[in-house]
C-alpha cells in the first residue's frame, strides 16, 4: 500500500490525473497497471500516452453513466429490524412499484 503522496507521485509520473479521493486514485492506478501489463504482452503495444488517454476516456464515460443512471430505491435491512419492520418495507416497496409487478 502506498501513501497518498507516493500514489499521487506515481500517477503524475505517467501523466495520470492526481485529482480525486484516495479510492479513486487507487482505482486509477490499478487500472493503469492492468492496462500497462496487458499492453506489454501485446504484439503492437500502445504507448503510455495512448493508455493514459484511453483511461481518461473510460473515466469520463463512467462518470457520465453514473450521472445519468436513475437513483435506485433499494430495500435496506439491518439485523436489528423486527419482522414487522421488514414486512412494512416490503409492503411499501410493492405499493410504490405496483406497476412493475402486474402482468
Automatic annotation (TrEMBL):
GO annotations of cellular component type: nucleus; Rad6-Rad18 complex
Any one GO MF annotation of this record: single-stranded DNA binding
InterPro entries per the UniProt record, alphabetical: Rad18, SAP_dom, SAP_dom_sf
Any one GO biological process: DNA damage tolerance
Residue stretches making up the SAP domain: 1-33
Entry-linked SMART domains: SAP
Protein name: SAP domain-containing protein
Taxonomic placement: Eukaryota, Metazoa, Chordata, Craniata, Vertebrata
